[in-house]
Amino acid sequence: MENYFYYDEKECQFIPVTYGPAERVIYTLSLWVLVGTVITTISLSLLSFSAGSPSEIALKAENKALYNQLHETKKSIEYLDQQMAMITSMDNDLYRTMLGIEPISDDERQAGVGGADIHARFDAYSEPSSDLLRWTASSLESMERRINIQKLSFEEIKAHYNENKELMSNIPAIRPVSGIILSGYGMRRHPVLGYKRMHEGVDFRARVGTPVYATGDGVVKSARRWRTYGLLLVIDHGHGYETRYAHLSSLADGIRPGVKVERGQIVARSGNSGVTSGPHLHYEVVKNGDPVDPLNYMFADLSPDEYLEYRRIADSNPMSMD
């Protein structure tokens, strides 16, 4: 500690100031407190310049959370866009085709708009944020337009359906059994014969004795054993449509040629007759004499997610059950 002096007028001289032990401790502590206060103040000032004030830090955290949420929203929009694309495909390729209505072109469905840049307001933000906000706003607007067009399309289909109720009642439009699909339509390797050939239907998992339902109104055309199909039931739905149910174990009571059946009526029981690798139901849809993919004719009781799952299984299995 440095020495300090005071002037004594009586003695006419400078006399050193003396401190006791307690005063020395107080002086030292006071000095360190002062130095610490100065250093803390400087540190906080530097931190404020680099990281911002508490309110700025909170705002940055909030902006980051909002940006992450926008990314999650983008994923949801992309999923909805996929679902919309599938509905559009079914609308054009299935509903409109079956009813004889002209499909809606992609350009009409997109209903694009031109003109001034309506999203220029987002340019005030950083480039990543601006791009994300532009994409989100544009995608939502596009989806809104497509949904409105799809609503109009469904109204047109509904009106056409009301004028063609008999056709819609006869078209095979449900699953013949409640089991999951095992193999799809197309070239498949036969599990018994061992070579690839055209598999003209789909195979459903079904234990022996599982109820089999008529997929549309119609008349029983034949019910007999037929080659590798085993016990085969054929229903004529009119309008060029037939359905075939193979490898059955038995027919339902009263089912014989000439009998009328309704959609959802039990017409047979599944089995393992004919040449197969195990119990299941082989189901075919024939239009104007040619087999078609039955998966495209299950629109009445398959949700979009179920259809996608059935399609994935059907396309991935290279072998049939028969």
What would you say about this model in short?
With 322 residues, the protein is an alpha+beta fold.
Q: How many helices?
A: 6
Under CATH, the topology of the largest domain is which? Glucose Permease (Domain IIA)
Which residues form runs of ≥5 with pLDDT under 50? none
Number of domains: 3
Structural features, described:
The chain has 322 residues and is α+β, with helices and mostly antiparallel strands. It has helices at residues 21-51, 54-99, 106-110, 127-163, 165-170, 304-316; strands spanning 5-8, 13-16, 181-183, 186-189, 196-199, 202-205, 211-213, 218-225, 231-238, 241-251, 260-261, 266-270, 280-287, 290-292. The protein has three domains: 5-51; 67-163, no CATH class; 181-316, Glucose Permease (Domain IIA). 43% of the residues lie in helices and 22% in strands.
What labels describe this entry?
322 residues; alpha+beta; Glucose Permease (Domain IIA); 10-stranded antiparallel sheet; two-stranded antiparallel ribbon; 6 helices; 43% helix; 22% strand
Describe the SSE topology.
Layout: E1 5-8, E2 13-16, H1 21-51, H2 54-99, H3 106-110, H4 127-163, H5 165-170, E3 181-183, E4 186-189, E5 196-199, E6 202-205, E7 211-213, E8 218-225, E9 231-238, E10 241-251, E11 260-261, E12 266-270, E13 280-287, E14 290-292, H6 304-316
Antiparallel strand pairs: 1-2, 3-6, 4-5, 6-13, 7-12, 8-9, 8-11, 9-10, 10-12, 10-13, 13-14
Helix pairs in contact: 2-4
